[in-house]
């Protein structure tokens, strides 16, 4: 009596294909590809691609077979290959400047978080000075990113190049005059005005300013806001000295201000918190100035060291979480709209952190309102 052979089950065929494919991968010493997944699942390579493409039309049974094969082979889709099909890399270029401020790590962390929630990954570029952005633009084009968030001013020619390449762009925390460019920022000019207003209201008359680097748009706007407000209030022009957004220039800047005035100023505005720390240490430990009784010191950014008990700097905090959220939302909308999204400018107000380094007028003193 002849025995009838039982045909193999679908599961048995798939298991045999999987074992054969794994052996071939080991023998040939190569990585698993979508073609291997297709062989094990018994489908075409294009079917595998559709299974890994969000929103693609695939039957539940085919999707289950492909996913089982992919799991068995430890297959991970090739992002570069997938970008050739979708025409998107899901990468966003973020350009930051080394010397701008210590707030950039916080900004980068927030931007990375918000973009990741939208399926995007950050490709970070750093430049030493704001004027050096041109050096990284070639790399941005080369990496075929979906869009860019740049924390530096751009020339008209650079903006036009983004437009020519149809690459979505958001300028982060810089005031852009060009209405064709989308931007998200904390109004730096108004931050300078706010600090000058509160200090003048408390009786300060002679001011010094340790500004940032000459080429920094951020430092320039903070300085201009303070100087314009003091002029409006009829107070003497402040002594302005350049700084480098670092600890050393905070101390040397204070010495230069005192040397120019021939006396200790009533208040010193430092272009960022790091310079304020240098100014404070020089005032208290080297020059024996009583802060804030004899001289107030204020700053910008509210980075973590400024809040330490030994420092407790009076400073302005930028709403970095909300700004990063807005930048990610805006850029994602621009990418998805494929050029139909109209330019936007989203401006955020700063928050005053009242530390122990300054005497400030209460907010209720409305006679100083701008």
TrEMBL record:
Provide any one GO MF term from the record: transcription cis-regulatory region binding
Is Transcription regulation included in the keywords of this UniProt record? yes
Alphabetical list of InterPro entries matching this protein: HTH_LacI, LacI/GalR-like_sensor, Lambda_DNA-bd_dom_sf, Peripla_BP_I
Record-linked SMART domains? HTH_LACI
Keywords from the named record: DNA-binding, Repressor, Transcription, Transcription regulation
Identify the species of origin.
Pseudoduganella lutea
Q: Please identify the protein, giving its name as recorded.
A: LacI family transcriptional regulator
Instruction: Please give the SUPFAM superfamilies that the UniProt record associates with this protein.
Output: lambda repressor-like DNA-binding domains, Periplasmic binding protein-like I
Q: Which Gene3D superfamilies match?
A: 3.40.50.2300, lambda repressor-like DNA-binding domains (1.10.260.40)
**Classification via CDD domains:** HTH_LacI (cd01392), PBP1_LacI-like (cd06278)
Record domain HTH lacI-type: where = 32-86
Record has Nucleotidyltransferase as a keyword: no
